[in-house]
């Protein structure tokens, strides 16, 4: 401790001694300093008891403020304007409130509160500043607001029903949030700038973490949630080359996005557990964005949509009774859905041209639905198991041309049903197993337009092929191997 700090501490200690004798644990300390000296000002406040209040206001360079209050119902405030400032505050007890404002460069803020119903706010304007807040207890509130570049802020909360938030204007900043308990919330709000990093880790149940209102480029958002019924929310994100990485481990967790706007953005979602949800019906708007979604468990649900060109959507589910839906609006997009398990449902919608889609299901009683609206799309469907169904048709009964639909089913009692309207489409169906059916005439399997090519291959017993191909210049090839097969080909 410097000599100046020692002198101020001794003077303050004497003053507090007389104050405590007169008022019996109702302590109050007010310090206001303004200096233009070379070394600046130092403040040290320490109060014991309850119903304490301390205030320090410093203007100058090289300021050092330290506040310590013990027991309950305490309030500590510090305002510093200048450069090279350090504020440290430590409170133990209930109903504490701490506020620290710093305007200047290279500032460091530290606040520690232990008890219930604490509230802390730190704000610093400038660059290369550092702020730490730690709260232990329930119903705590912590806020870190910065304006500038290359700042770092960290908030740690242990307990239930806590809230932490970060607000930023600037670039190259980093924000870390750690919460352990239930019913906690942590968010990144109204941020603007580029190359910022926000990372949040939540351990417990019923927690919420997310980003609401952020604009800029090259920003990274990472969320890890361990527990059940946790939620990640992302709303009104805009910018380019941003990265969102969310990991949820537990049951009944949710990932909600609405929407992300910009180009070359990437979203990665990994959920481990049962009954988890990925819901992004207005997911990404822009060009060349990438989505990776992975769910491991049963009864999970995922829907993701992109609008624009050259997107990549990949959804993988491992478990039973899962639902995966991917919609792509635009051109040159790629959609890949994979399900491993029984009774799963895959749906792919391609609304545009020159898109590529692949649906893969391994297990029994799965259903794959493919909807096409546009031209020059390539669709592949693979199902391995028994009693699987493929439904492929043009969107709203419309026409589509120059599309390539390839479907392969391996197993018994599988069904392919399709209605494709348009010209110069290529359909190839392959079934290997027993009692498989490719419907037709009155049961769909209608290919309309001219110059279409349909190729059907069945290997197994008791297979049935019906069909109808409309318009002129069509080609249909049917191959069946096994006994009791029926093939009906109708071409007009």
Architecture overview:
With 492 residues, this protein is mainly beta. It has a domain at 1-136. The strands form two sheets. It has a 23-stranded parallel β-sheet that branches. It is elongated and about 95 Å long.
The biggest sheet, with number of strands, parallel, antiparallel or mixed sense and barrel status, is: 23 strands, parallel
Number of strands: 43
The Rg value, from CA coordinates, equals 32 Å
How much is the average pLDDT? 83
Q: Give the termini distance in whole angstroms.
A: 97 Å
Strand content: over 45%
Shape category: elongated
**Number of helical regions:** 1
Q: Class by helix and strand content?
A: mainly beta
Helix content: under 10%
Low-confidence stretches: 1-24, 487-492
Structural descriptors:
492 residues, mainly beta, 20-stranded parallel sheet, 1 helix, 43 strands, disordered N terminus, disordered C terminus
């Amino acid at each position: 401790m410097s000599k100046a700090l020692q002198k101020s501490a001794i003077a303050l200690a004497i003053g507090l001694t007389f104050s405590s004798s007169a008022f019996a644990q109702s302590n109050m300390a007010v310090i206001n300093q303004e200096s233009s000296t070379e070394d600046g000002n130092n403040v040290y406040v320490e109060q014991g008891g309850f119903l304490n209040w301390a205030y320090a206001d410093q203007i100058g360079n090289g300021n050092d403020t330290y506040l310590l209050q013990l027991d309950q119902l305490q309030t500590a405030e510090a305002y510093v304007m200048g450069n090279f400032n350090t504020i440290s505050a430590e409170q133990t007890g209930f109903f504490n409130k701490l506020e620290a404002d710093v305007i200047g460069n290279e500032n460091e803020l530290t606040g520690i509160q232990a008890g219930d119903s604490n509230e802390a706010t730190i704000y610093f304007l400038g660059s290369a500043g550092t702020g730490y807040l730690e709260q232990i207890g329930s119903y705590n509130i912590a806020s870190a607001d910065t304006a500038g570049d290359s700042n770092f802020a960290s908030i740690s909360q242990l307990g239930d029903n806590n809230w932490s938030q970060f607000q930023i204007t600037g670039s190259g900043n980093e924000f870390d949030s750690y919460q352990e308990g239930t019913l906690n919330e942590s968010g990144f709000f109204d941020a603007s700038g580029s190359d910022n990093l926000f990372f949040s880790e939540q351990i417990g149940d019923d927690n919420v973490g997310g980003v609401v209102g952020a604009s800029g480029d090259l920003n990274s958002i990472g969320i890890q949630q361990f527990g059940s019924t946790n939620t990640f929310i992302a709303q009104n994100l805009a910018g380019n080359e941003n990265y969102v990485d969310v990991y949820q481990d537990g049951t009944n967790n949710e990932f909600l996005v609405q929407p992300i706007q910009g180009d070359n953005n990437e979203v990665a979602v990994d959920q481990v557990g049962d009954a988890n949800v990925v819901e992004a019906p207005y997911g990404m708007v822009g060009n060349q964005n990438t989505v990776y979604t992975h769910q491991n468990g049963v009864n999970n649900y995922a829907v993701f949509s992109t609008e624009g060109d050259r997107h990549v959507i990949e959804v993988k589910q491992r478990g039973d009774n899962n639902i995966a839906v991917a919609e792509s609006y635009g051109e040159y997009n790629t959609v890949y859905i994979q399900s491993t398990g029984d009774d799963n449902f895959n749906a792919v919608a391609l609304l545009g041209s020159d898109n590529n889609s692949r649906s893969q299901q391994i297990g029994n009683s799965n259903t794959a639905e493919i909807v096409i609206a546009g031209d020059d799309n390539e669709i592949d469907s693979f199902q391995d198991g028994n009693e699987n169904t493929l439904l492929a048709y043009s969107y709203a009964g419309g026409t589509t041309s120059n599309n390539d639909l390839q479907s392969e089913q391996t197993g018994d009692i599988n069904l392919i049903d399709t209605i494709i309207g348009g010209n110069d489409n290529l359909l190839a169906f392959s079934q290997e197993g027993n009692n498989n059916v490719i419907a037709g005439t009155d049961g769909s399997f209608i290919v309309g337009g001219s110059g279409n090519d349909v190729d059907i291959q069945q290997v197994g017993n008791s297979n049935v092929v019906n069909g109808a191909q409309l318009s002129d210049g069509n080609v249909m090839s049917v191959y069946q191997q096994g006994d009791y097969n029926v093939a009906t080909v109708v071409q007009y």
